[in-house]
Batch of 3 targets.
Target 1
Amino acid sequence: MVTDVRTTDLAMVKPRGTARTRGERVFGAVNATLLVLLCVGMLYPFITVLAQSFSSSGAIKAGQVNFLPVGFNLDTYAAVMSNDMFWRNYGNTVLYTVVGTAIAMTLTTTYAFVLSKPHLKGRKVLIGIAVFTMFFNGGLVPNYVLISALEMKNTMWAIVLPGAISVFNLLVMKAFFENLPKELEEAAQIDGLGWYGIFGRIVLPLSKAVIATMVLFYSVAFWNDWFAAFLYLDKSELFPITLFLRNLIAGASTTASEGAAAAGSTTAQVSANIQAVTMILTVIPILTIYPFVQRYFVSGVMLGSVKG
Amino acid sequence: MSSVFGRTPSGATRRRVIGFSLAAGGAAALAACSDDGGTEIDVEAQSKGAMENFAADMQFTATEPFTLSVLWTDWPDLPITDQWQFFKEVEKRTNVKMEVTNIPFSDATEKRSLLISAGDAPTVIPLVYTGDESSFVSSGAILPMSDYVEHMPNFQKYVEEWDLGDMVNNLKQADGKYYMLPGLQEVSVPVFTVVIRKDVFEEVGAGVPQTWDEMRAALVKIKEKYPDSKPLADGFEGASMLNYASHAWGARAGWGFGNGMVDDGSGKLEYTAVTEGYKQMVEFFRGLVEDGLLDTDSMTAANDGSGGGSVTEKVAGNLVFAASGSPGTAIEFQQALNETVGEGNHEVVVIPPPGGPAGQIVEPRNFWNGFMLNAEIADSENFVAILQFLDWLYYNQEARELIRWGVLDETYTKDASGKITLKPEFSLNAYNINPGAPTDIQRDLGWSNAVFADSSESRALKESYNSPTFVEYVEAVLSSRTPRDPNPPAPLDEAELESSSLMATPLKDTVDTNTLKFILGERDIAEWDDYVGELEAQGLQQYVDLINTARERFEEENS
């Protein structure tokens, strides 16, 4: 992302049509080559997985699949898609992501708005409380015991509530709100809007960029998160797709002991093409959303970054 | 972006973070609630549902139905469903309803630790391998099983019948009790051994090697024929090969390193990594590397856990002809070779681990995964019934056959000689039995599930579902190899356990690093004495004394 921002900035600095010096041309060439290489480096694993998802498992095991599928077939897609648990877990992920993002956005925007008002009494304490959690937390077992005691185990709330406010997102948003012209709010107040009105009708509509960015941050985080589900859920019909996927591909990663390795040799039977198909199906939604949110993303993150 | 949740600084090290926090948190959380050791059970009050005259080889049926919570590891390729006939049939026969807590296989051990540490574990914790239990013992969270085996007649019967008493003694912790009950195997056959391309070994005129010297000679011949190859490999960072090879030199290494102690011949324990046998073993493998016979990449590369991965690719590409693996690995090699060499043009077999200077000795493998129980169950009114049920489930031969094959005359038949045949409308694809039949007894019905099925097995049961080549392997091991005698037990008490692990970890690190360096030629074997000196500087003698004191104490207390 950072690289993208830099290149766009450079492009904007230089007006079009100006003759380029030799140094600039060399720089451009080197820059382009490096970025293309970087791009290939990043795309290669993805393309391989994509190719594997259409290949036969034998060809994958024999190490024949690189860029193009070998033994092209769609059977694996059909097989994975006919698995009930796959769809149930997929549905769970969508549910957790939507509910989680909604809750997270509500809490983060309101909290950030309040914190952005310098005249708020106890503002520093409120910020302190949030920032404190950035550096310290209770630890794994205490957290687990807490969630258990709140009887949130084996419910969606164990997944969506603990991560609802990300302090990083909160601070970015606070900085954004602080940069909105104060005069707008004053004008709105004169016209009779209360704080909720100002927040809902003035501030939020003006913050589309940062909101889109935060929605993206939160939804990607919820979509990718397997750890909370791993900790707090004991029923496979409640698992998100990431846990399903992790079980499928990371299953055999412990070989510290013979017992584990022996158990792992059973999982090795989850053939590479099934793993590939599940990975592809899992990333597709995020991949398709990304390009549309991208333009907000860049401007959203940059906003508020100049004025500290 | 995962840092949005701010739990750990980096996603990559999460597993390690879990491990550390579990160890730390668990120890701290549980220090407070250790058991007072009250192991008396009130047989009258706690026998609800129990059978009065329960004996070995008898069907267990609870006199009053009850529910039992079980930790269930979910294998990704075998998603559990409550529709499985397994649950229904067991309930029908025993009046016990199993209620499962699912944990994904990928992180099963971490989640298990978490549940036990948080006091949230289900009653029955299956899939416990020997040694897994020791970290939970001091917390009092798990039940000392040895106090209750009197209620488990099947267990007692087969321990005696299969002569496993000494090995059971080795399970004892410092308090003289054991906390897990292992699965009992009638025959001792190493699971991991060498998988070879038999056709190639025969093609070069080498045959199946019986000793490591023969193995070396065969590899030399193969190397002549296939100069580009490095014919021997290990896809488990060397840990598997060193494990099964070490017994041939009377040492312990790799996965089997354990606390690093071996019997010195006089009934005392010595540190294996400084023995002459260990040195010879290292020199042998150094020789293989020097002559280009051992694939060094596979010894150092991180593995994907299946032992396949890059090794499978090399096998498929005729670059490797012998590698560590289980019968499952052999099937993987076959599938890969079918793609490259073609079906019928290769023969992959598992062979008994080659012998060496210490004789044709293999590791004793009479224990497989078993179970431990949540300590809270000791207060349950169903306690005796639960013990009887588990005794039946884990050790009754009829139950074992049920769990493997399903319902007699419904899914399988058994003739007068005891030969088991799966009915044609059922398949067991994991073992290639009746492939293509509409109903898979494992996937669709829950029989042969990995949680319970592999645990305890008689020889006949083991051979009933495995391929003929595996049956040959079992026969070859039993007829030509002797299981190694177990070490004299030396269980440590809590304080000793702590100081021993402080000493043992750096020692083992030094051993592991230098073993690999010697083998790969990064360190000259002439520096062996320096290496021994380094270990001594790290407190080797102190450690050995600690273990030997524990051994003597145990010997006195139990003689």
Target 2
Amino acid sequence: MSVELLNFIETVLNGLMSGVMYSLVALGFVLIFKASGVFNFAQGVFALFAALTLVGYQTGQVPFAHLINELFGTNYHNWYASMPNFLAILLTMITMIALAWIIERLVLKHLINQDPIILFMATIGLAFALEGVGDLMWGSDVKVLDVGIPSGGSIWLEEATIGLAAEGSDYYGMYVDVLNIWATVIAVILVVSLALFSQYTKTGRALRAVADDHQAALSVGISLRSIWILVWAISGFIAMVAGIMWGTESGVQFSLSLIALKALPVLILGGFTSIPGAIIGGLLIGVGEKLAEIYIGGYFETGALENWFAYVMALVFLLFRPQGLFGDKIIERV
Amino acid sequence: MIYKETGQYKSSYKSDHAIFPLLQDKIAFSTLMFIAFLIIPFVINSYWEKAILVPFLIFSLAAIGLNILTGYCGQVSLGTGGFMAVGAFSTYKIMTYFPDMNIMIIILISGLITAAVGIIFGLPSLRIKGFYLAVATLASQFFLVWLFNKVPWFYNYSDTGQITVSERTMFGIPVTGAEAPSYATYLFCLVLVVTLSFAAKNLIRSKMGRSWMAIRDMDIAAEIIGVPPLKTKLSAFAISSFYIGVAGALYFAVFLGAIEVTESFDIMTISFPVLFMIIIGGLGSMLGSFLGAAFVVTLPIGLKFLMVDMVGLSAVTAKHFEITIWGLLMIIFLIVEPHGLARLWSIAKEKLRRWPFPY
């Protein structure tokens, strides 16, 4: 194989892997949108909050330490030195479920039957509030998140591919981050278990019923509110997984919440209402972005296409399919 | 009794179609204009100008622009920051190429350039609707900010990537640059805002405004009764972008003086706050645009005063607190009054009509 082809394969592979990361965030959006019709802008901040909380539990930080110290002149910092990863993740999960419950009780319950734009604005408010609370609770400094997922280039893949190039060419093998491979595996497990859950359990069936039709679901005795809490808790859980992955890669800091903006083009490309759409959309955007960066980005001296390229790509798709690739067909009547 | 409509008879179509059909409104408005034009310029100081009045005026203009598009024509846009950046950078480029041109004309031309850009980015709205469109307008935000950040021609190849305004005068008094007196910048913004809001108010009452509202309420029905969607949607994008562009030009030239595009026109600092202004003020209401802008501009100042000066928190913690309270207020506001401050005002009017005998 020629070096160009191998480089192309490497780019596509890396694109697919980063696409999985986008899909993880988009998945949370889709679940909430399907079940409660809320376009949850706070999904990115969910991920940030989950990652912050996880680090906080791991290192035993005292919540609101800065605030308490400033108000009362005390000097609290840590309760204990460290906590096992397993326990910390479990506690974070409980926190996210509690968060979902609070959001349903304090926000969603009062906004039933409002315009979608009002609900959207409310989730922007939620994003601000949650970001502020996260910073107040755990401090805003950049934190290192390590739950034992290996990272760095995969040496095995590098050695396996080095022989594929033609004799005598300058080829060093493919570079793929092990962390991304792990993320892919975990994402696949997550999606499969989600699919099984919604297909074969009673709660899962109720979930799908609510996604199909709120009123019909209510009339057969499904409690909308408990389903909403459940859905927000599941997206909280997905946000936690995304937060762990992104946090391990680039540290836990404010910019983590901006992955929501990365997931939006994935959403409109795949369609707001489709879980397969979120996954395939994520993969398409991931590959498209990486290819564009290498093959088109070279023509602009300025580089850094990736902020907007995904949006333009999604826009081009939308011009042909206004409801996204897999979204529900938009039927309009007068 | 304070707000009495009875007895105010209209005997001609002209008086029936007046902007302020009620005497009370007329008096209130003239008093407000009197205070704004003839009293505030004499008492204004630098703090009031920089912290409250000028940002309030500029953001009112941006809010009117977004309200035309979102409130009246029903097309949700998250690209306000990008369009304001277009206004700012057009002003900068025109200033460098035509050093003798009047600043007022420069700002209006920048508005026109932004309108042209707005038409281009409005084209997808013909195919895409609702949240899909909202996310698609984010493309304009990211693309435009990227463009101004990465193409050096836009910032005249300066090393820092910043653009800085040079001094320009109106009637011999500087209105831009560091030397401009407070009353001059204030009056300059005020004249533009008052003129443009009158224009907007009248546009909305015209055939064009009615066709916007028809498209907003139901686009297919509007099309069937003969409202052309292409022309209507694109005109809304053009005019809305004109207002936002002028606001961006003022933001750069009069208010900040020097800007760095990724910081000043970020989605978090411009696009969402302006959207919040029109929602908190009231979608589809001119008064709402002003009330929303006033609320959003003054709230952080009040919060900061409370946190840092009264309670004595450090600036960083206070900032976090501010974000939290800000988010909570947004939610509380949407729960309590989703139709915004303009709706509260009309409820108040209703009450005043019967006061002091509610029954």
Target 3
Amino acid sequence: MVSPDVGMPDCKDSGPGSYEKGGVVSMDTQTFRKMRRYKALYILFIPIVLYLLVFTYYPFVRGLVMSFQENRLIGKRPFAGLSNYAKVVADPDFIASIVNSLIIGVVDMVLYFVLALLLALMINEIRSSTMRKSIQTIAYIPYLFSWAVIGGVWALIFDIKGLVNAILGFFGQEAVFFLAETSLARPLIIGMGVWRSVGYFALLFSVAIVGIDPTLFEAAKIDGASRLTQIRKIIIPSLSGTMKTIIVLLSIGVLTHFDEIYVMVNPANRRFISTLLLYVYETGILNFRMGTASAGATLVMIGTVLIATVMRRLTRYDEE
Amino acid sequence: MAHQLKRADKLPVALRIVGGVLLVFTVVIMGIPMLNVLAVSFSESAASDAPGLVLLPLPPTTEGYSFIWKHTDLSKPFFNTVYVSIVGTVLHVLFASLAGYILCQPDLPLRNVMTSFILLTMTVPNELTLIGIYAVNKDLGLINTYTGLIVNGMISGFSVFLMRNYFSTIPKSLAESARMDGASELNIFLRIYLRLASAGLITVGTLELIRRWNNITLTVTLISDMKKWTMPVVLRWILFDQSSTSGTAYIFANAKMAAVVLTAAPLVVLYFFVQRFLTGGALLGAIKE
Amino acid sequence: MKRSIVFLLVLALLAPVMLFAAGSSEQKTPVQEIRVLSSVTGGKDEAENKLFEEALEKATGLSITLEKVPSGYDQVLLQKLGAGEQYDLIYLNQFQMYTFASQGAIADLTDRIETSAVYRDNVSPDELDKIRMNGKLYAGFNKLEVFPLVNVNKAITDKVGIDLSKLNTLDDYYNMLKQVKQYMETVEGRKPYYPFFVYMTDVWDLQPWFSSVGLRRGVFFDANGKKYAPYVDDAALPVWQWLRKLYAEGLMDPASFTGKTGDMRNKMWQSQDIVMDSDWAAWTGLYNNNAKVAGTYPDKVDVVGLPGIKGPDGVYMLEQGGASLWAIPSNAKHPDAAFSIIEYFATPEGGRLLSAGIEGTDYVVKDGKLEFTETGLAHGKDHGAPFPISTKFDLNTLGTMNPGVRESVAIGKRADVVVAPMGYADGQLDARQYYDIMSKWMSDCIMGKVQAADAIKGAAAELRSKGIID
């Protein structure tokens, strides 16, 4: 292990916060010197910028422009001002779908994060490596199937004659009509999301846990620290960077739940789980109203930017 | 050695029991879909359509698989998928690590602006770019080409930020001392960062490979030539579009699930194999040599 | 150092550029190439699609490119047209026709169709009226639409001792379901048994029951030009109440609200978990044919089609499926040629191509009769239109059909049966919203959360607030 005080100061000493603020506002000589030093990196960043401009920003701008135009698929699209936005915002269904999106999205984000972290920590405590690998693989498997397949199996499990009701029946409970029970609509959708994604995010944590410098554990043991203390004092702090990254990535997904809703929606649960993108899909895309769809999608994007920015600030993502 | 030491001590008994029970529970509920899909795929045609959850095929048969075999030639879509997924993933990981490396420099001026530039691309919903994506690919002549499937999605913020995270766990002192020895930025990136973050690279690569393998929306957008179809598109076609309402064709559930298994199986195998590199723990130890 | 950076940069830039170059010299179509965008219509695979294209070229004398998008068609249609691709002929459904027409995206074909000798000789004016929008025609036919009707498993009702010909009222059906439930639960010990499945999601399968009060699904214009929805009329109350009673007494499968049509069908023929549903006429045959494969036909499964219940006017009202159509985009380069393809699809020969398939591949002609090859049988005599639109097309030429289909299809031709489409309100209906509102209130009513009369009022109020009815 290279001792930390060799060479140039590493990121922890360099006070990234001060650079960030000073660097953008006033280009002092120090900043210039840095930029010169990192010239190569800026040059390497150019193809990335070009690529994203062509394949993401250009299509995005086209969509944005369409949100200010009338719903016309072929030919010239007359300018429509803000009328598409006005129509979307005035629709009570849109407002209802904001509420659904926020509830499902935020609870999903918290559960994905907490349960994935717990799962990764538990898996890390398994001593047999074959067991560890097998459990990780099984936990990850739901992610390999499409939502349509997952939705089908989920429906079978919670069917009136399904597995869960069979278990309930075994304990003398009456069968519950899970899929149409309105109070269970959101919990079931959230559960399905967790079910499919928890193994995925647990993997991201696992990889970070495995990367922790083993000498830290050796030192802790010499100090007589218990395993629980090691988890608290070594593993959790070492994961802070990964946690920040995952929180920011998850926050981007808060308002964009669609597929699991699409496969599970029914007349009984629709009003509780219809999300923003389902609204955009059904009122806009399904009806070939691209102006409406683009306006709705742009609003979703604005919301996502807000949420992501808040999370980025809260987690101090840009400071290491 | 260090690996064994790390695990020499244990958690309190009560916690271990709770953890064990939770893990068993997780395995059971996570295993059900896999078991169900497998069981149905190995059921007899008529039996496979029985309502309810099947966890054991009785009696087991490969009828579903042979039906799929005769019904659709899957070899071409399979190799199409392998080709576009692997080439696309390699390029994707290359760019993700390059961008991640750039963004993990803590004192890089304009870093926040660059981060925002990439972060913003992640917030655009697909619904907003449906037509734009098609138009770009049409203008670049990428419609009905494998190249189109490879080039689209070559850079994603998701992978960039994961790579940035993995790189940032590597001690900066290593780079600095190499820099003082006169190593070029490219050499530092290739020799130190890529090597030490190989677990991260493999993780991002695996996730991307799976995403590409299962990608339907993009394939449907770009490819209308059935010769160039990929597995998931063929799968969806078999699962949903073939049993048309007024038509006369009928496909039993065992064949449908056989198609699901055939599509997912390579990924499961790959994932189990790749895990060797993810659960190692020997990676950082390697620096010490 | 510098050299290596330049190298990497060049590599990064070149990779995509080289790849672009490889694919860019495509899609150079000759001047007279007719571009057709199709969904289900065409060959079953790439090779057969080529043959289909050739057959179509031979028949019309045109040079045709038939692009078939069997999966994700709506998305592709949106993307291609939205991005400015030019097609001469596109496949679309009836809803899409209304949307496209109101956006000015497809050409008005009224004059062409009304002066077409082919259409005059082959297409019934009734069918044309069903796709008019404000009196105008914007598309030609892909096929003749069939209809859903009541499907009952006679193997079970026979065992219970029920005479299907005596089912004439809502009460008759109620009693039948009750008897079946009792039989299955006591004699066969299958408890709980829910004999009736009605796919609620689009309030899709209810027409045979609303026929009893003479009402149709959708939105229509009344004499004063106001939009109204018959299903929320006060006269509809008995049907809402009837459905509510079925559910309360365990005669309706709870999965009706959450299940997919696939679940319903499996329960019908595979496990016989239900004895009755509403489904397409073609499915009467598919149920029996599947059961045949499983060895349960006709002892356990013998599905027959029934028209439902006669209304006050003495007719059975069944609903025709939404039309599948061909339209000419407003930016088409060769509308005349495109229309000649529309005409060809309306001829008996075109109908044969769309159903039986390609001569020499799917079938051969021997002594004036079609003899299907193995490929042809595997393709199920469906290349876009199992029932061609031409009145001169003889379905008998297609050979044997699945057991029960012929009888079910024949019901639609009876004098006391009226098969008509749902009310599209001249294309003004936002179907998605109508379905969502209706299925929500109906589900609440049936599951006992709201009284039937209140549910009707609630649904009407919500439809009105959304501008779906006046």
